[in-house]
Amino acid sequence: MKRPTLRDIAEIAKVSHVTVSLALRKDPRITKQTRERIEEIARQIGYRPDPALAALMIYRRGAKPSQYKATLAWVSSKNRPEVANEFPFDIYRGVQERCEELGYHLDTFRLPDMDMHFDRLSKILNARNIQGVLFAPSEHANAHISVKGFDWDKFSAISFGFSLVSPKLDVVISAQFRAARLAVRKLRSLGYRRIGYLANQDFNERTDRNFLGGYQSEMSRFSPTDIIPAFTVSGADYSTEFKKWYYHYKPDAIIAPSVWDVLSPLPPEEVRHCGVAVLDLAESPGKYAGICQNYRIVGQMGVDEVVAMIHAGRRGIPSTPKRILVEGFWLDGASAPRIVFQ
User: Fold this and answer.
1) Which of 11, 206, 297, 320 has the fewest Cβ atoms nearer than 10 Å?
2) Which of 325, 254, 36 minimizes the C-alpha distance to 245?
């Protein structure tokens, strides 16, 4: 029995096969009425995409030099226009690199420039026929985008990280839980036993407590005498409270979110005896030991996912959001030298 094709659907629907192809990919240029009629015809005649043909088209697209295809949107909540101020910059760099490789242009939209009006952003994107949207990670936890103000059904969208809590989109981010576990294991292999965790509450919420959870999960495997309660930074009281926590629990090493002077409240003679591992290092080794989150790869995979969504016609808020995780890796550094306990 002959396999139904796009041209068979086109003949029944009295439209071109190009219109059928766009409709089955849920392209917003095709009206809802036409799209639903074509989808119903496809169901009635038993149309199924040919996987071999799809694979051939993917191969052909990959074998050709990249040419301009369309524009994707990078939507940022930052109010400073300098590219170097993107947060984190390596995700943005990865997005730029992949867009260039695939032949897409990248436009940046800053919400403060629009007074945070998502309906305005939606209209601009629609007017420019931008179908793919990448929401940059927010510097703060619990970010929201109005479901009513933004016309989600017209766009294929993902977010980087867990700072955007509503609506729940497909997420591309580093494997934060596993990164914290790796940091603990590496510190243990270097001789550290009593390992503390330091982060502010906003960081814990912005990362969906994945780093904190990974740390606690890994530490639970060891002797109870080695387990230290996590320290949450408390603003202006940080210095005083940190010293109380440090002198009470006497950690051998501390895991912290980023490169900053974690041990600054302590006198120099104390600093020499405490290792530091950072959860967000640049790709090249240096003063600090810790985890490189592979943010460039995160950015590249975000573009890959949005492009795949566009081709598959996946738009709107997903009923079951996906989580795409990228593995990080450990970097040795002077802040966590190998030690030997007697």
Assistant:
1) 320
2) 254
